[in-house]
## 1
Amino acid sequence: MADKVKLGMIQLCGCSGCHMSLLDLHEKLLDVLPNLEIVYGPIVADVKEIPEGIDVFLIEGGIRNEHDKHLTEEIREKSKIVVAWGTCAAYGGIPALGNLYSTKNLLNEIYATGSVDNPDEIPEENVPKLLDRVYPVSHIIKVDYTVPGCPPKPEHNASLIMALLEGKEPNILPTKILCDECPRKKKGIHPKELKRTFEGIPDKELCLYEQGYTCLGMATRAGCGAMCPSVNVPCRGCYGKTDAVLDQGAAVANAFASTGDAVLKLSDKVGLFYRFSMADALIPKKVEKKK
Amino acid sequence: MQYPASIRIVRIPCTGKFDITYALRAFQKGADGVMVVGCKPHECAFETGNFRAEERVKLTKEILDELGIGGDRIEMFFMSAAEATKFVEASNIMFEKINKLGPNPLKASQGK
Ligand code: SF4
Ligand code: SF4
């Protein structure tokens, strides 16, 4: 490899966790780092302008404000390959649950409550204007690759970066659902009652959903190795949908509907079904009543 | 015998094939209402197709409520394939109901 690969990275409406997950490459970093030149990355160096001629740009986080949008468009112009990196960039992630509230309500919640010194003063000067909702990166620009995960597994980061370094097509994501890689025993039944995660202690061998826990494995892309069900925690869907469906929440809902009244009794169904993918849903935000 | 001209029919082999995605897709594309029409209870050739659809419609109602579109905009009707009058009746009931509710608020919010 003659020239180093010029890499750009940024965190938009995300938590920097995807950047942190790069460190989990551990000794693999030693293979990767000598072949990379990080030319832009606010998390590691203070570079004011995004330089031209970037080979690979990793975007973490969704698009929440006008500045995010502007940067994303600039990144696209200046980069050969753009990766929607992590679930927030791919599907909105946790911050996109804010799409269930109006921008006004969100700002009021933060700035107009008694917990601040100057309630009712919503900062407007010198801060970028919020968009009407969180958008996945792919809704704003063309994205070349998507690597979901909250955060992506180090193996996925490694195979992505290795493939891009070698100029190969990254082929890292399984197309199956999580249940297919989950070792728990399934009987093919639907539970009569649904429980909160803290209620009772789940059997270690049996499918969590069939035991009545709200596991979203049936609507979530495989790839994480069923990390959460392996430690008795239901999957919350962080790897997003598979390519076979349009809408992760609807895929969960189709399965959960078979529990009859049990699912109807749950509160905040949309928040549960779309926990990580609200921004990429067919109906990606709560519709506000006129007036 | 006529059903309202604004109704578009999407045929599925059995209501058991009805997927909540279809309903959300319809509303995303601007439909004002969705009616799911299945065979009479206990007359499903696959035994439970229509009941499964009914469960999905019930859940779709709640999802639509939470999304601000309104659960009243989707209904399930049961009838046999030979009951044309019943279909027209159901279409008219649905049409009236949606007329009262007005246009899909998603469409309105996007100014389309
Ligand atoms: S629903 Fe959850 S626990 Fe059950 S098989 Fe799927 S991933 Fe495993
Ligand atoms: S089990 Fe589900 S929530 Fe947990 S890491 Fe895997 S995809 Fe994410």
## 2
Amino acid sequence: MPTMNLIQAVNDALRLRMREDPRVVVLGEDVGKFGGVFRATAGLVEEFGEERVIDTPLAEGGIVGAAIGMAMNGLRPVPEIQFSDFIYPAFDQIVNELAKLRYRSGGQYSAPLVIRTPSGGGIKGGHYHSQSPEAYFVHTPGLKVVMPSNPLDAKGLLLSAMRGEDPVIFFEPKRLYRAARGEVPEGEVEIPLGVAARAWPEAEAPALATVISWGAMVPEAVEAAQALAGEGVAVEVIDLRTLWPLDLDTVLASVKRTGRAVVVHEAPRSCGFGAEVVALVQERAFSWLAAPVQRVTGLDTPFPYTLELEYLPLAPRIARAVRAVVAYQP
Amino acid sequence: MAARTESLGRAHPAARAKREPSAPAADLERELRVYRHMVLLRLLDERMLTLQRQGRVGFYGSCYGQEAATLGSAAVLDAGDWIFPALREGGAMLLRGYPLVSYLCQIFGNSGDPTKGRQMPSHQAAASVHQVSWSSVIGTQLPQAVGAAHAARLRGEPTVVMAYLGDGATSSADFHHALTFAARLKAPVVFCCQNNQWSISLPVSRQTAAPELALKGAAYGVPSKRVDGNDLAAVLEAAGEAVAAARAGEGPRFLELLTYRLGAHSSSDDPTRYRDQKEVDRWLARDPLQLERLRLVEAGVWDEEREGALRGEQAEVIARAVAEAEAFPPPSPETLFEDLYADPPWIVSEQREALRAELAEAPRKKPGA
Ligand SMILES: Cc1ncc(C[n+]2csc(CCOP(=O)(O)OP(=O)(O)O)c2C)c(N)n1
Ligand SMILES: [Mg+2]
């Protein structure tokens, strides 16, 4: 089985879909000859031509708006927004148009498209090459939101997203683009949207706390879990993979086993997607909880340049929160 | 006829020879002053890219090849005029008197940076020289520049605002907003579009089907002109006229400064993947520094010796400033929470205290810092 990094896995999924379905088109800034600033679309224009791999002008609202029209009229566009920090010029097209198109036309029109966009920090990108804007999109009814944490999931989830009928915002944690490597089968990989995975431990085992995370914070949560194991604190780490629709069954089953939950995300804390997870857990598993559910997150500040390691909720911050939750006395 | 475009008068090298040989002394003096800064900027860019490769600087977007367009246009501004820059106009601050050490501290992102190490390099800002903080988001500064210009007029100030943008930015929605508003409000704003012919990997011919970007300005009713951006004298003249018109209450102006990005888009880019070296070589022959040097030599105010002395002097100035700037420690973690609100809510102090406690227990390992 080939070993791939996360970019190669994305590239592989795009190529597979473009080969099997002539309706699939890729569009975005620098996606053609350059193959994308992160190389995620490398080789596609050579194989599929400029009609299906479109180097667009610099206008995100144009990219998404045009993709919506293409999707309404029978294509399967996969627009790329070069950094998720630059998705805001397309916010109107996504929130007011894409998300509501099927609903407002009484089901007569829809726009099945997948917006791919690198997100997250830790690459010295400062305020505008580091943000994690997933919560805005989960908050918008009509959109699905995905964020893989490893190459295998990236390929499988992207394939599922591209085959679905709903618009999907597909966040690719850029800190893991080259750092995450793993075996990825050639050809088909089936990973449905809306199904979480256990990232740690490998086999189900009794644990004192559940850590719930997604994207680039999953490896951090696993690192924290490994450190805590050395202290005799067993932890289960759940990788949501799809934020919306949330796999609530998997989350609740784990929390009911462990009695404690910590939600970890890179985005700022207040009104982050973690707040929704916490609310659902306490609404539906209150009687199983031995401690208040905690959040470990980025700070409620813009993402910094020099102090990014202070900002990010890395393994030490996660481990501290788990220790506190386990030690909690009412 | 409010809107018009004038096509390139001096783009072709042959056109240069026809230039009137005896420019007035005051013009030459100004050119010389700007030329010195062009050399400084060239040397600084080279040094910063070296430091970037050595891992001492995180990122860098250079002005290489665009020194005449950048500094020539900024040089015509008064001290009170404002600049809304894009990626490549940091050097205008140095021309307008900003200290080199502070400038370098921004690039190192350390505690000597007045903007507190928060932004990537090449995102300089200093109210002392009226250069506004650019985000990274292409085009966003343009409508803001229009508003600032309108405000100056309402306040009865003679300020002109210069707004910079690239060729790529002319596709952004904010470009449309800015030009529409500027013309409608008759705001004293000059748009300086640095058409360096590339937007990362996309050549301007594939960015837009408009044959000249100056046509775009004209379409909104803004008098617009294409100028040879590698010809310092031409830039000084055109920018001077545009700024004078804006200051005189005649409304906005749009300049397309035709130039060329001789270097990579940024330190993260590899242009060999998408453009032909032959094209770069053609433009190297029109290097704005070389063109201006020839002109100054022809005018009898410059020679090899002075050039050598200037370069030696400036290399030393840069070396000393780098040593001084690099010695500053990183910003303290407390600075993360400053400047967020005029009246900070409770969460700010709560998170500051939590971070302090966390770092006391588990300090961050800094790779290479
Ligand atoms: C809204 C937005 N989209 C995409 C980017 C990524 N990006 C950074 S610079 C750039 C090209 C800019 O080209 P141009 O305006 O010609 O300026 P130049 O870099 O040539 O000076 C792109 C696409 C961005 N910064 N902002
Ligand atoms: Mg450009």
